[in-house]
Amino acid sequence: MKEKRILAEESRRKNVPPAVNEAYAKTLGELVGCKTVFTADGTNQGEYDRFYAIVARAFPRLTARAQRLQFGGGCFFYVLRGKNAVKNVLLMSHHDVVDGGDGWQTDPFTPVVRDGALYGRGTIDTKTPLFAQLQACEELLAEGCDLEGLNLYIGSSHNEEVCGDGMVLATDYFRENGVYFDTVLDEGGAITTGMVPGFRGKSAMVAVHEKSRHLYRCTARQQAKGHGGLNPTTDNALSRMSAFIAEVNRRKLCKGRFYPEVRATFTAHAPYMDFPMKLLFGHFGLFAPLIKRIMLGIPQARAMLSTEISFTTCFAGSRDNPQVRAREAEATLFLHCVREDDLCACLEKLRAIGKQYGVEIEEVLRDYCEPTDFTGRPYRVLESVLHENFPDVVVAPFLLTAGTDARRFTGLAGSILRFAPIDLDKAQFASIHGANEHIKVENIGQCVCFYKDFIQKI
Fold this sequence. Notes:
The protein is of the alpha/beta class. The chain folds into 2 domains: 2-208 and 370-457, Zn peptidases (Aminopeptidase, 3-Layer(aba) Sandwich); 212-367, Alpha-Beta Plaits (2-Layer Sandwich), CATH 3.30.70. It has helices at residues 2-8, 18-32, 45-58, 60-65, 127-142, 166-176, 237-250, 260-269, 277-282, 284-296, 299-302, 340-356, 377-389, 426-431, 441-457; strands at 67-71, 75-81, 87-94, 112-114, 117-119, 150-157, 181-186, 191-193, 202-210, 212-221, 308-316, 328-337, 359-367, 393-400, 413-418, 438-440. It has a 6-stranded mixed beta sheet. A hairpin with a 2-residue loop joins strand 4 (112-114) and strand 5. It is globular and about 80 Å long.
C-alpha cells in the first residue's frame, strides 16, 4: 500500500509553467553548447571563456551582487553574504565535461530539444545542477531574499573530470583563511529507479559518504650481487613482485561488513519492497549474514561492503636490453576504502605479505573522506525539501563508490551531502559519460524549485 501511495504522488510534484521551463532549457542549452572539455594545453579555453560570459549575462543580479573568486584556470565561486551570517553553505558542481564520444544521434555540443528532453553533453553531469543553483539564486535575489544568517557559496570546478587542481586550490584558500562550511551539497546522488532490489518505485539517493582512494608504491629489489649471468636465480625482483601480486590477489584480505549508511539504504526502502525482499530487509539484523553473503558475490554490491584492492601499474627491466635481469620491480597498489580503520587493517596484512616476498610498501597518496552524520540537521533539511518537491520518492542515504570533488572538503565542513535533483530513467543513467545524454525539460524547473527551497530552509 505504501508503494502505491508513493507512486500515485508523482502528480503532486512541484512544477513550473511550460513557458518558464522552455526559457530555462534555452539558457541551459547555451551552457551545454560550450565544449568545456578540459585539456592541459588549454585547447578549449575559448569555449570556457564563452561559458563564463553566458553565466555573467544570464544571471545579472547574481553577477552584480556576489563576490567572485577564481582558482586555477577556471574554478569559480560566487559568494553571497547574508545579513547577520553565522554559517556558510556551499552548493557545488563542475562545468567541465567529458568529450562527446561515439553513438550520438545528435551533435553532443549542439543542444537539441526533442520529445520533451534537452540533449547534449553535460545536461546531467553536471551543467543542469549548476544552472539550477545559479537560477535559484537569481530568482531569490529578484524576490528580495536577504539570506538572513547565511553566507551562500556556489562553487564549480573546471577540471573535476580529470581529478584536477581546481577544488584543491579552492580548499587550500578556505583552509588558510579559516572558512568553515556548515553544509556542502555536491553531485553524487540523484532520483533513480531500479537501484534497490525489490523496490519498483523512485529513490532519492543521497550520498553521505564516498569511498576513499589511496595509492602505494610496492618495490622489490634484486638481492643477489655480482654478475647476473654468473649468478642465475629465479629469486629475482620481477619473480618476487609477481609472487607478491599473485598472493595478494589470491587472499581475501577484506571480509566485508555493513556500514551504517549501507544498512540505512535498505532499511529506508524495506517498507515499500516486494516479497521476499521486504521480509529480508525488514528484519535486517536477523538476515544480515545471508544478505552479506549474497552481496559479496555481486561486484557492484561488494564494493559497498569492503575495501577494494587492485594493482594499477607494474614496471621492471629494460625494453632496450631485455636480456638483462631487472634489478628492481615496482608496482602501484590502489586501495578503495570505506573507513580509516579498514585501511589500517588492510595495510597491516599487505605489509606482512610484502615482508614474505621482500617487497617494500610506501605511501604515495592518502585521499581520505569522512562520512557525514545522516541523522543531523543538514540531512534532515535536505530530506524535507525532497519530500516537498518530490513526494513520490523514497529518500535514503547511501555510500558512493565513485568520487566527487566534495571529498576535498573533508575537515572543512560539518556535513557533506552529494545529491542533485535529476530524475534519471535507465536511458539517462546509461548516458552519463555515454551517448545521447539528456534531461527532461520539465525536470529542469523542478531542479530550480528544489535549490530555491533548500537555500531558504537550510
